[in-house]
Each structure stands twice: as structure tokens, then as C-alpha cells.
Specification:
This protein is mostly helical and 430 residues long. The chain has 18 helices and no strands.
């Protein structure tokens, strides 16, 4: 075959792979996906908040750390409440309240000046911005068929990282012009997301029949806490999240102490976003029908030992290589873990279950900075990286044990039909 023929064959395979990656998903999913992308494209505040407080406002690094912790604490507080709202009020109302509140509080954060006011509004921003996560994940589980969920969650995760990569690149330019412009831009983008939800997304919460109410008791928070297998998965998710959080909290501190510049850290971490954008979809095609237990065990080990390898890094190139290792674990873990949570959740309790799962990541975001700071100050960075390897091993063993049960333990049911029912045109053509 000629080179031109080989090139056409390769292009044909790529087009076919892309079609297979996006085909068969309902139109409502793509509006939800677009809402996620727009939201992350406007995520300026998380990128430049520390610089805004220290350089523009003149506050100390300790105060900036306190504000970051309050943002995380707000997410912890709202996780459970948002899950309950998702089940009681519905996915759509919860999204509208969360995104509208986020737009208002982010805009307000750009105007307040007193340190107590900044801290208080930052806490509200953390609450509002995190409240949409259980609703998004529950709605996605409602409208996507079980066999397509790993692919759908992977595409959503890809949108999150693509949007964040673009917003992170643009945040520096926005900050040079005006920090206030960054706050207002994020508020505007979040408001656009709320409008998309209001105009394009019908409610997807399954409606319970009288027979279902009689046969299946209501799912409360107590039901979630008594679900031993699910709570074990939440605990393991917390351990894995602790590891991945070190890319944002432990790694920059360790590199700084080793004499590397912020630019060096930025170059090393940029590999994470580039690999996720480039590999998330093709890797998902490879893993979506494979044993989730093996995937979660493997990704936990690779994440833990990927960060463990950081102890041997002595150059920016080697740091970037370790980022490559744990990024591959992240690509596999994120959609697999989210799909597992859905499969373990009863249909009429998805909001509460997703809220508890979101809590594991919010708690990790709150605790990881404290843990990394303590470990580095008291014992040195090498002990932090060794600890990551140990935590990854513990998580891997935990997944292997927890997921040994029979398939009958899984509570998932086929995705219900939304109201109004979708038409054949609601599917993306293959």
C-alpha cells in the first residue's frame, strides 16, 4: 500500500474511533457536557486566588492558605446537602440554584475587601460551586445507558480538564489586566451554564410509582451510611484523592524547597493536562468494558508509586516523567470510579450517594494540604512520597477486597426514560 493509502487508512481509523467514542449518547448528555465545559472554561478564580490575595491585596501566604481551606470546607459542608436536594427537589433545580449562587458569590468575592468578608464569601463560593457536582453526576447516570456510562463520565472528565487547561492559560492574561475582570468573567460563564440548564435540560429524576414506593423504602442519609460496601468505596476514594491532591499541594512545595522555580513546577504539571486531553478518550475506549476491580487496583498502585517516584526526581524532566505516570492512573481511575459509584447507588437515591462520594474528594482537598505540610516540615518530602506509595497500596488492597462480591450486590438498574421522552433524533448519529 502506498504512503497516501496508509495515511487515508489511518485517518479513517481515527474518524471511526471518534465516532464510536461519541455516538449513541442522548442529546441531553451533550447539553450537560457543554455546560460542564463552559463552566470550566471560566474557572479563573481557583487559578489565581493565591496570587490575588498575596500580590494584589497584600495579605500573607498564611491568610491565602486559610482562604483556600475555607473554599474546601465549603465544599465539604455542601456535598451532603446538595445530594439530598438532588433527590428531593430534582437534578435541574439543584443545578440552577448551585450555578446561580456560584455566579453571585464569585462576583461578590471580587468586590469585598475586608479579610473577614473575603474569608466568609470564599466559604460560600466553596459551598455553591461544589453543590452542582452530585446533581451533574446523578443526571448523567439518569440519562445515559449503563453500558455507556464509563464512556460518558470519561467524556465529561475530558471536558473538565480541557476547560481548565484553557482557563489556566488565560487566567494569567486576565490577571495582568484586572483581577476583578477574572471574577466577573467566571461569574458570567457560570451564569451561562445556568441558562443552558434552564433552557435545554429537562428534569431527569426518576418518578416512583406507588408499587415502587411500597416495595422499596425511601433512601435517606442513614441508608447511605449503613451501606457498608458503598461506604468502603467512599473511604477508598478518599485515599486515592489524597494521593492525587499532592500534585497541587505537595509537589509545588517540594520542588520549591529543592530549588526549582514556579515556572519549573508549571512546566512539570502541564504534562498532566496535556496527557488527559490527548489520552482520556482513546484510553477509555480500551478500558470501558474491562473488569473495574482490576482497573481500580491497578490505578491505585500506579498513582501511589507514581508519586513515590518523585522522591528520586532531580530535574524538571524527571519530575515531568513522574507526572506522566500518575496521570495515566488518573485517566483510568476517574471514569471507572464514578461509574462504580453509580452502579452501587439505588436509582432513587443517586443524589445522596453522589453527595457522599463528592464528600470524599472535598474532604481530601481540605486535608491534603495539612497532611503534606506536616509531612514535609516534620520529616521531609521523601517521606511524603513514600507515604503516597503506602496509601496507594492500601487503596489497591481495599478495592480488591471490597469488590469481590457477586454482581447481585450492585443496585444499578437501566437508565430510566426522561420526561419528556427523547425522540430518535436525540441520539448522535453513528
Amino acid at each position: 500500500m502506498s504512503r497516501a493509502g496508509e495515511r487515508r487508512t489511518g485517518e479513517g481509523r481515527i474518524r471511526r474511533a471518534v465516532r464510536e467514542s461519541v455516538s449513541g449518547l442522548p442529546r441531553a448528555f451533550w447539553w450537560l457536557w457543554l455546560s460542564t465545559l463552559v463552566n470550566r472554561l471560566g474557572a479563573f478564580v481557583a487559578t489565581f486566588m493565591a496570587l490575588y490575595l498575596t500580590l494584589d491585596r497584600g495579605y500573607s501566604a498564611s491568610y491565602a492558605g486559610l482562604v483556600a481551606a475555607l473554599l474546601g470546607l465549603g465544599g465539604v459542608v455542601s456535598s451532603i446537602g446538595a445530594g439530598v436536594m438532588t433527590d428531593r427537589l430534582g437534578r435541574r433545580p439543584t443545578l440552577l440554584v448551585a450555578q446561580s449562587s456560584t455566579a453571585v458569590t464569585v462576583a461578590a468575592l471580587g468586590f469585598v475587601e475586608h479579610p473577614v468578608a473575603i474569608a466568609g464569601v470564599a466559604f460560600l463560593v466553596g459551598m455553591a460551586s461544589n453543590a452542582s457536582r452530585p446533581a451533574v453526576q446523578a443526571m448523567m447516570a439518569d440519562i445515559v445507558r449503563p453500558e455507556d456510562r464509563v464512556r460518558a463520565f470519561s467524556l465529561n472528565y475530558w471536558a473538565i480538564n480541557l476547560g481548565f487547561a484553557v482557563s489556566a492559560a488565560g487566567a494569567g492574561f486576565v490577571a495582568e489586566y484586572s483581577y476583578l475582570a477574572g471574577f466577573l468573567a467566571e461569574a458570567a460563564m457560570t451564569l451561562i451554564c445556568a441558562i443552558l440548564v434552564f433552557v435545554k435540560l429537562p428534569e431527569s429524576r426518576p418518578v416512583r410509582t406507588a408499587q415502587e414506593k411500597a416495595a422499596e423504602p425511601e433512601v435517606g442519609l442513614g441508608s447511605v451510611l449503613r451501606d457498608g460496601r458503598f461506604m468502603a468505596v467512599v473511604g477508598l476514594s478518599f485515599l486515592v484523592a489524597l494521593i492525587f491532591q499532592q500534585g497541587a499541594v505537595g509537589l509545588p512545595v517540594a520542588m520549591g524547597q529543592a530549588g526549582f522555580t514556579p515556572a519549573d513546577y508549571g512546566m512539570a504539571l502541564a504534562v498532566n493536562g496535556v496527557l488527559i486531553v490527548a489520552l482520556q478518550i482513546p484510553v477509555t475506549r480500551f478500558i470501558e468494558h474491562r473488569d473495574p476491580r482490576r482497573l481500580l487496583v491497578l490505578s491505585s498502585l500506579v498513582a501511589g508509586y507514581g508519586f513515590g517516584l518523585t522522591a528520586f526526581a532531580g530535574s524538571v524532566g524527571v519530575f515531568a516523567l513522574t507526572v506522566c505516570v500518575w496521570t495515566l492512573a488518573e485517566i483510568v481511575n476517574a471514569p471507572t470510579q464514578t461509574s462504580l459509584v453509580v452502579s452501587l447507588s439505588p436509582t432513587h437515591g443517586r443524589g445522596r450517594y453522589q453527595g457522599m462520594y463528592t464528600l470524599s474528594w472535598s474532604a481530601a482537598a481540605l486535608i491534603a494540604p495539612l497532611m503534606s505540610g506536616f509531612m514535609i516540615d516534620r520529616y521531609g518530602a521523601d517521606w511524603l512520597w513514600a507515604g503516597c506509595a503506602v496509601v496507594g497500596t492500601v487503596a489497591a488492597v481495599g478495592y480488591w477486597v471490597v469488590m469481590r462480591g457477586p454482581a447481585a450486590d450492585v443496585k444499578d438498574t437501566p437508565a430510566p426514560t426522561m420526561a419528556p421522552a427523547p425522540t430518535p433524533t436525540d441520539e448522535v448519529a453513528a
